[in-house]
Please model this.
Amino acid sequence: MPRIFPFESYEEYVKIQSDINKLKLNWVYLEKVTIKAIVENMNTASTVLCHGTRNGAEQKYFKHHWKNAEVLGTEISDTATQFPMTVEWDMQKQKDEWVGKWDVVYTNAFDHCIYPIKALQTWKDQLSPDGALFLEYSESQSVYEAADPLDATLDEVMQMMTDVGFKIEKMRAKCRAGGVLIKAIK
Model:
């Protein structure tokens, strides 16, 4: 059963996530080959939304492949404004103007969620009719601590995705820490 680190409040969660972001601001978790696998799978996309992007590396990699695409990233920390194509936003929350808009929604930060079902429903709602969620997940990075509050097995993550109505498939892509890239559609 998934566990979520017990923060005293939502504000404490945001503060800790922001503080950790600032400590790791120059560190890129993402492997370029992961983005390449998504690009090869989708062939084309006109809109891409990346969640939990710290320093905007994901957006740059997607823009490299899809030069004409609208690419945007979210980051919960106030550092977001330092990076192009990035807005300060909690990836678990919906923006009305994002509903049904995005051909690709990508994240490698699912283990940072304290509302995993809400986040998955939000991301599902953000997909365009032919869009796909690409969720990179590593059990070894899901450690039930303030930095990575969601502790879940890969099977539990896939079950949560199914529970919110996603149709999922595992993709083989090189991901950090023995992770896997999951493709999900509506």
